[in-house]
Design a protein that fits this description.
Layout (H helix, E strand, L loop, with lengths): L3 E5 L5 H10 L3 E5 L3 H9 L3 E2 L3 H5 L4 E4 L4 H9 L5 H4 L4 E4 L5 H13 L3 E4 L2 E2 L1 H7 L2 E5 L3 H14 E6 L6 H29 L4 H9 L6 H12 L8 H17 L5 H18 L8 H8 L15
Parallel strand pairs: 1-2, 1-4, 2-3, 4-5, 5-6, 8-9
Antiparallel strand pairs: 7-8
Helix pairs in contact: 1-7, 9-11, 9-12, 9-13, 9-14, 10-11, 12-13
């Protein structure tokens, strides 16, 4: 079954997700604040529109892939927001990483308008978005899952049904980001330490990749470091935001998170040093600047020199 879908947020994740929908035969009315992704959407067969309201006006399913809770708020309830025109019985699918209390509140506000919310944050990065193999951590009503199913089937490999209330999906994604951020900061720290002590960075990566110290973030991001390729597949600023969500939520629970806090400080340091829009693996540059060298592989320049 093919359907018409409103889509807001055509960034590094959103655009390839929208293209997956188009490839599966769905009609996509897409909006982004930038002009280039709208042109790419049109080239792929989509229908670019001028506002979130226009994206929602002709559909009953509205997908949001925006960066922050504030952007989601604007897309739905701002001057040109889509919630007012989605129509009773419509479903909003929020794929963004946002604070769980925000998602819970959003679900309640939409319900008052006769709308449903599927709290559905995603994991898998740009690679997963391009391949249509994302993991979705979702919670919401059976009706919301049913309405979103054609879109989710096109964009994701795995959809976890985590509960019937918005907020649970965002909680699970928050824990994923807690671990991912800590693992990445630790990977940068460990690779820099090894290089500073004289280990060849490329060899170090190969050994750890086949040892107990490996992690998914280590395997995925250290090659970016070794190649000195910090093209932003997911930017440093994303972990400034996401680990901030982790810490804010834990503070509300009076729950101490010293390890997450330390990782957050390293991403803040990277952003403060001017690397905020670079790939999140650029957190390694915080350590590199301390000693004046680069952690580079065989083709990425010299590493391990003070």
């Amino acid at each position: 079954m093919t359907i018409s879908i409103g889509f807001v947020g055509l960034g590094s994740m959103g655009l390839p997700m929208a293209k997956q929908l188009l490839a599966k035969g769905h009609t996509v009315y897409g909006f982004d604040v930038a002009k280039k992704p709208l042109e790419e959407l049109a080239a792929a067969g989509g229908k670019p529109v001028a506002s979130p309201r226009a994206a929602a006006d002709q559909v009953s399913l509205l997908i949001l892939v925006v960066a922050t809770a504030d952007q989601a708020e604007t897309a739905l309830f701002g001057k040109d927001g889509g919630a007012a025109v989605l129509g009773e019985g419509g479903v909003v699918v929020l794929h963004s990483t946002v604070p769980p209390p925000f998602t819970k509140s959003l679900g309640e506000r939409l319900a008052e308008m006769g709308l449903d919310l599927l709290d559905a944050p995603i994991s898998g990065g740009q690679v997963g978005a391009v391949a249509g193999t994302l993991t979705v951590m979702a919670s919401g009503s059976e009706a919301a899952f049913a309405a979103a199913a054609p879109a989710l089937d096109a964009m994701a490999k795995t959809v976890y049904r985590l509960g019937s209330e918005p907020g649970i999906g965002s909680t699970v994604k928050m824990i994923n980001q807690h671990l991912a951020g800590v693992h990445l900061a630790a990977a940068g720290e460990a690779m820099a330490l090894g290089a500073a002590c004289g280990a060849d960075p490329q060899t170090l990566f190969e050994v750890i990749s086949n040892s107990a110290g490996n992690s998914w973030m280590f395997s995925n991001r250290v090659p970016h470091i070794l190649a000195r390729d910090f093209t932003p597949h997911s930017a440093v600023e994303i972990f400034v935001k996401d680990l901030g969500i982790v810490l804010d939520t834990a503070r509300g629970q009076r729950f101490p998170l010293p390890i997450a806090a330390a990782a957050h400080q390293q991403f803040l340091a990277a952003a403060g040093a001017g690397y905020g829009r670079e790939d999140d693996s650029a957190v390694v540059k915080v350590y590199e600047r301390l000693r004046g060298f680069e952690v580079a592989g065989k083709t990425g320049g010299e590493g391990g020199k003070d």
